[in-house]
C-alpha cells in the first residue's frame, strides 16, 4: 500500500511575513489556526496536498519532553533554533495504528500515535473542528528532518475548500519533494518503508520514490545544482534535508507575479526557480501544469 504526500511543514520564525511572501507569489493562504500545543499555522492547499507554514505561538503550551514520546511542537521549535525551512515530510494514512505496526515490522523507529483537534476557519468566517491522528518516525540518517503519517479524521469538506485552492499563479499540484544528501542511496530503505514504495529509480545522482501522490527525490547537492541550479539552504545540516518543492503552476501568470512583487527568481530549462534563501529556507521549482 502506497502512502502519498499529505503535506510539508515549513517552519518559519514570522508567520505573517511568510504569509505575505507566499501571497505575493500568487498563493491563497488560509487564515491562521492555532494548535493546542503551542504552534500556529497557515496553509497553502493544492490538489490533495498542502504546504503548512508553521511558527511558534505560545511556548508555555508545549508539552514537557518525555522519554519515548515525540513532540511536534518541540521538534519544530528546535528546528527553528538552527534555521528556517522544510522541517517535516508528512505522508497520508487511513489507519495510523496499522501503519505504525508495519513500520515496526520493518524495524523503523516509531513513537506512540498522537491525536489532536483544532478549529479551522471556513471561507465564510465560520469555524469547524478538524481532527487528526499522527504517527511519527525517526530516521537516524536524517535526524533533523521529521517524518510522520497523518490521518484526517474530519469531514473532508471541513478542511479542503475550493475557495482556498484558486491560486492566482494557477498552482495545482505538489509534484515532488526534493531532498539533498551526500549519499542519496543511504535513504532508499527508509523512504521505501515509509512510503510503501519498494520500486524506485536509482542513479549515481540520486534516488526517486514515486508515492503515487507526489515524488520524493533525493539528490546530491552537486546534482541539484546541475539539474535545477539550486543552492543548498543556509545552515542545512551535513546530513541534508528537504531543500525545495516542485509545484505545477501557470508559468506566465507566475512570472508576472514574481516580477510585480520583485521576488528574485530565474529560469532554468523549463522551470522558474526561487532559491531557498528567498523563501524562508525552502526553494520552489515551478513547472508548467
From TrEMBL:
InterPro entries: Glyas_Bleomycin-R_OHBP_Dase, Glyoxalase-like_dom. Gene3D superfamilies: 2,3-Dihydroxybiphenyl 1,2-Dioxygenase, domain 1. Pfam families: Glyoxalase_3. This is VOC family protein. The lineage of its organism: Bacteria, Pseudomonadati, Pseudomonadota, Alphaproteobacteria, Hyphomicrobiales. It comes from Cohaesibacter celericrescens. Residues 5-190 form the Glyoxalase-like domain.
Amino acid at each position: 500500500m502506497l502512502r502519498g504526500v499529505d503535506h510539508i511543514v515549513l517552519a518559519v520564525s514570522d508567520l505573517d511575513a511568510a504569509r505575505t511572501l507566499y501571497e505575493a507569489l500568487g498563493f491563497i493562504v488560509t487564515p491562521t489556526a492555532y494548535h493546542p500545543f503551542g504552534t500556529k499555522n497557515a496553509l497553502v492547499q493544492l490538489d490533495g496536498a498542502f504546504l503548512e507554514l508553521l511558527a511558534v505561538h505560545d511556548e508555555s503550551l508545549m508539552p514537557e519532553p518525555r522519554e519515548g514520546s515525540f513532540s511536534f511542537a518541540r521538534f519544530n521549535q528546535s528546528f527553528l533554533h538552527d534555521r528556517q525551512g522544510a522541517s517535516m515530510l508528512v505522508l497520508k494514512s487511513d489507519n495510523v495504528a496499522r501503519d505504525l505496526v508495519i513500520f515496526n515490522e520493518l524495524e523503523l523507529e516509531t513513537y506512540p500515535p498522537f491525536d489532536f483537534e483544532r478549529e479551522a476557519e471556513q471561507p465564510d468566517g465560520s469555524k469547524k473542528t478538524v481532527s487528526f491522528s499522527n504517527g511519527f518516525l525517526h530516521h537516524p540518517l536524517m535526524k533533523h528532518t521529521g517524518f510522520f503519517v497523518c490521518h484526517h479524521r474530519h469531514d473532508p469538506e471541513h478542511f479542503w475548500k475550493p475557495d482556498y485552492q484558486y491560486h492566482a499563479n494557477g498552482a495545482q499540484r505538489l509534484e515532488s519533494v526534493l531532498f539533498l544528501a551526500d549519499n542519496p542511496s543511504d535513504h532508499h530503505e527508509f523512504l521505501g518503508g515509509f512510503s510503501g514504495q519498494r520500486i524506485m529509480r536509482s542513479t549515481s545522482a540520486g534516488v526517486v520514490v514515486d508515492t503515487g501522490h507526489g515524488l520524493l527525490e533525493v539528490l546530491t547537492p552537486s546534482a541539484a545544482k546541475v539539474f535545477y541550479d539550486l543552492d543548498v539552504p543556509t545552515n542545512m545540516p551535513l546530513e541534508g534535508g528537504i531543500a525545495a518543492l516542485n509545484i505545477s503552476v501557470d508559468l506566465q501568470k507566475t512570472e508576472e507575479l514574481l516580477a510585480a512583487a520583485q521576488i528574485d527568481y530565474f529560469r532554468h530549462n523549463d522551470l522558474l526557480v526561487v532559491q531557498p534563501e528567498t523563501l524562508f529556507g525552502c526553494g520552489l521549482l515551478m513547472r508548467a501544469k
